[in-house]
From TrEMBL:
Protein name listed in UniProt: U25-Theraphotoxin-Ct1a_1
InterPro entries reported for this sequence: Thyroglobulin_1, Thyroglobulin_1_sf
Disulphide-bonded residues: 59-66
SUPFAM superfamilies per record: Thyroglobulin type-1 domain (SSF57610)
Domain Thyroglobulin type-1: 25-89
Signal peptide: 1-19
UniProtKB keywords: Disulfide bond, Signal
Amino acid sequence: MGYLHLFSWHLLLPLFCWEFPGHPGTDCPTTLKIMSEDPERRWMLPKCEDDRTFTAMQCFPGTTACMCVAADGSPLTLPGFVNVTACECFTEYYKMWLKDEKLTSSTKMC
């Protein structure tokens, strides 16, 4: 149960307290274009998938700091807050959270 509680804080904190440097409601290529033209937002240009969604793992250029984001660009972790090496678990738990599914102690941890 402690892991689920800890995970929920890691998931909810970025969602409510930190703004990903993008433009809500825009697809990844549009956000990439907007951010690349704005010197204040060029610090982390998003990586995009072929279907115009955000790549789950977003990394800062020239560093080892990475973060996980949802397909719509919503942050799932903070850069440097957790040593992120993969985003599958964060993505799956975010999808369950969106569906308002109950996370129980029997929920398989990644």
